């Protein structure tokens, strides 16, 4: 049983009120009636879908990712098994830093990929947990099931993950994109971004902890994210990959 208000799972099935938020819980009969009125799980009538999209937009406009996650968890309770809501939850990360007042970029899901650009910045334990979250996240499996695409959804998810990483942490950085979170534009991103992306692809290729299938899929998605960012001008990156003996994923 899940609370329809806060979205949390109940420790028992016979509770009258949620122990987390205090809201009254639906009985089995009420839940069955609600499901009958709304149709099958995840299927909404036009009015309900319109309301869901308005609520989802409000959550997406929240710039504080911790608060955004809270809003999305509430929406999960209101719209069970809704792919759009679950997908937005998938792209919010899980903090790993324990230092007080330290900035934890892991709340940004795509930051997981930083283990391939700066592997020395992370412990073996953190790198291992990042790999597991990239490919073995329960939320990823949930979204794959709701999408109706199954395993095919994984590549779609990786394309967005890589695209967000290139945009935010490469193109938007002073070190690689000659800008700061999009404030400045680099006139030749196909050259400047080829260096970090080449490093990322080299480290993915050398990662024996990933299966060959996952290495190929992640490499392909990162390459496509770079190509899309530089409007297909991949000659500099292709040259670096060829020199290092790394496949070019066209």
Briefly characterize the structure.
The protein has 11 helices and no strands. Helix 6 packs across helix 7.
Write the H/E string, N to C: HHHHHHHHHHH
Radius of gyration: 21 Å
What is the 3D form? elongated
- By DSSP (H or I, 4+ residues per run), the number of helices equals 11
CA-to-CA gap between the ends?
A: 46 Å
Q: What class, by secondary structure content?
A: mainly alpha
Q: Which percent band covers the strand fraction?
A: under 5%
Low-pLDDT ranges: 31-41
Instruction: Please give the share of residues in helix.
Output: 40-55%
Task: List the domain count as a whole number.
Answer: 2
Mean pLDDT reading: 84
Strands, count: 0
* Multimeric state: single chain
Give keywords.
single chain; 250 residues; mainly alpha; 2 domains; 11 helices
Written account of the structure:
It is a single chain. The termini are far apart. Helix content is 54%, strand content 0%. The protein has eleven helices and no strands. The chain is mostly helical and 250 residues long.
């Amino acid at each position: 049983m899940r609370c329809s208000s806060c979205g949390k799972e109940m420790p028992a099935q016979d509770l009258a009120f949620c122990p987390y938020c205090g809201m009254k819980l639906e009985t089995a009969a009420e839940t069955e009636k609600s499901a009958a009125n709304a149709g099958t799980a995840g299927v909404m009538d036009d009015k309900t879908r319109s309301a869901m999209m308005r609520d989802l937009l409000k959550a997406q406009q929240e710039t504080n990712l911790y608060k955004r996650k809270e809003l999305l968890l509430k929406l999960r309770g209101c719209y069970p098994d809704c792919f759009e809501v679950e997908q937005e939850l998938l792209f919010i990360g899980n903090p790993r830093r324990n230092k007080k007042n330290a900035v934890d970029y892991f709340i940004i899901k795509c930051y997981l990929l930083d283990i391939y650009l700066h592997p020395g910045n992370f412990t073996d334990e953190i790198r291992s947990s990042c790999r597991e979250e990239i490919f073995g996240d329960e939320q990823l499996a949930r979204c794959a099931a709701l999408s109706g695409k199954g395993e095919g959804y994984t590549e779609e998810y990786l394309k967005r993950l890589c695209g967000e990483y290139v945009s935010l942490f490469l193109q938007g950085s002073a070190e690689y994109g000659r800008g700061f979170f999009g404030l400045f534009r680099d006139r030749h991103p196909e050259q400047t971004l080829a260096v970090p992306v080449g490093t990322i692809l080299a480290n993915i290729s050398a990662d024996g902890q990933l299966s060959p299938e996952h290495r190929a899929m992640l490499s392909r998605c990162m390459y496509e994210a770079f190509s899309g960012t530089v409007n297909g001008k991949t000659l500099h990156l292709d040259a670096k990959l060829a020199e290092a003996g790394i496949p070019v994923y066209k």
